[in-house]
Amino acid sequence: MSVSSAENAPHIGALPRGPLGTIADVPGVTVGHCTLDEGALQTGVTVIRPHGGDPFRDKVPAAVSVINGFGKSIGLVQVEELGTLETPIALTNTFGAAAVAQAQIRAAIRANPRIGREWSTVSPLVFECNDGYLNDIQAMAVGPQHFDDAYAAASAEVASGSVGAGRGMSCFDLKGGMGNASRVVEAAGQRYTVGALVLANFGRLPMLTLDGVPLGRMLSERAAATANASTTTKPEQGSIIMIVATDAPLDARQLKRLSLRAAAGLARTGSVYGHGSGDIALAFSTAYTVPHEAQFVTLPPLLADERLDPLFRACADSVEQAIVDALWNAVSVTGRDGHRRLSLHDSAPDLSQLLNSAR
Q1: Where are its TM segments located (predicted)?
Q2: First to last CA, the chain
Q3: pLDDT score of 289 more than 70
Q4: Whole-angstrom Cα distance, residue 86 to residue 290?
Q5: Residue 194 has what DSSP assignment?
Q6: Could you report the per-residue pLDDT of 228-248, keeping only the tens digit for each?
Q7: Distance between CA atoms of residues 300 and 142, nearest Å
Q8: Each residue of 85-99: b (16+ CB within 10 Å) or e?
Q9: What are the φ/ψ torsions at residue 152 (nearest 5 degrees)?
Q10: What is the pLDDT of residue 232?
Q11: Which residue of the set 65, 239, 318, 347 is catalytic?
């Protein structure tokens, strides 16, 4: 591992990244953020669009793995049952989930007035984490306009760190938030991309492992020595949402298998999926769409299960890299009642030296 500056996070594993190094390296995927940074209000909304069209009319195959279910997400039951997405994916804080789900429904109805009448209803898909340490979550500041703004901002230029839904999130007792990564692999003689986006809001500092280096233990022991205090911390709690996208032709069953490998990347960073942690992974493919109005669905040739290992490896590496990316790009934030989370770089100004010396 080589660390040269605060601008360059260590590259996890040996697989190459895509040109952007974000989930937008998967063709067609775009991301938009709406950030609320107003004193005690430190929160936001992030929207992931699987393609540039209407996801209700042209659904994408998807699957979800609930690694630890301490969460309040909306829409997972239908994804599990039908194996498709029919709205963009939205991320926000716990108490904002209902407002964002309503905004998703209204947006789908505007685009398709037959929803809920001649057609079936629509299933919104919202993931959440609790940002209540930094954000006045009781203010319920997130509203429909914030979803609309994030949706309108969606592009292939994807920001990481203290933005969008990640604005008020904490990770390993540091400033967490949004993280991105991608990996390019070869399977069955073809090149495919796996991208990951995480909403990182979990963990305690002594647990933090960065590319195999017990960085959190090093930082917590140094802090304890300085303050003449104990390194004992509270149990792990919080949540992480892991969104995995690929252009590989997979069906929902295979995507379920892919989503589960996100847990491997999460574990490498030091998480043990604590009792109070909501750890959820969703995977989708952009290789084909499922028309809303169809008598039959024609699928492209799917990868054989025996050819999935490169994608599994890319998923684990991408999720681990995305968590590092969230920590690496976050800035320190002061929010509700003066609560403050320092960024990784503000907590360890000698970060590069620490990491390089550990190697």
Answers
A1: none
A2: 7
A3: yes
A4: 10
A5: E
A6: 554 455 777 789 999 999 999
A7: 40
A8: bbbbbbbbbbbbbbb
A9: -65, -25
A10: 52
A11: 239
| Mean pLDDT, residues 67-73 | 92
Burial class of residue 228, CB neighbours in 10 A (0-12, 13-18, 19+): exposed
Average pLDDT of the chain, as a whole number: 94
The candidate with the shortest Cα–Cα distance to 266, out of 202, 222, 346, 188, is: 202
| 44 touches 146 (CB < 8 A) | yes
Which CATH superfamily groups domain 23-292+304-358? L-amino peptidase D-ALA esterase/amidase (3.60.70.12)
Q: What share of the chain is helix, strand, coil (3-state, %, to 5)?
A: 30, 30, 40
Tell me if residue 74 falls in helix, strand or coil. strand
Task: Single out the residue of 196, 167, 208 nearest to residue 348, CA to CA.
Answer: 208
Catalytic residue among 279, 317, 318, 347: 279
* E strand or H helix that includes residue 48: strand 41-49
How is residue 122 written in tokens?
């629509």
**Which amino acid type is present at position 195?**
G
Question: 203: which 2 tokens?
Answer: 């963990």
> Does the annotation count 277 as an active-site position?
yes
Determine which one of 277, 318, 343, 347 is catalytic: 277
279 catalytic, yes or no?
Answer: yes
Q: Which residues contact 277 (CB under 8 A, 6 or more apart)?
A: 68, 70, 202, 236, 237, 238, 239, 240, 271
Give the Cα separation of 201 and 93 in Å (integer). Answer: 11
Per the CB < 8 A criterion, the answer to whether 131 and 36 are in contact is no
Q: By three-state DSSP, how is residue 219 classified?
A: helix
| Whole-model pTM over 0.85 | yes
Percent of the chain predicted with pLDDT > 70: 96
Tokens 């997130």 locate to: 142
What does DSSP assign to residue 325? H
Cβ burial of 189 (10 Å; 0-12, 13-18, 19+) is: exposed
Count Cα atoms within 13 angstroms, Cβ side, for 216.
Answer: 23
d(CA 291, CA 60): 9
Q: How many residues does the chain have?
A: 359
pLDDT score, position 4: 33
Mean pLDDT of 282-306: 95
Provide the phi-psi class of 179: left if phi over 0, else alpha when psi is between -120 and 50, else beta: beta
Nearest by Cα to 257 from 200, 309, 187, 191: 309
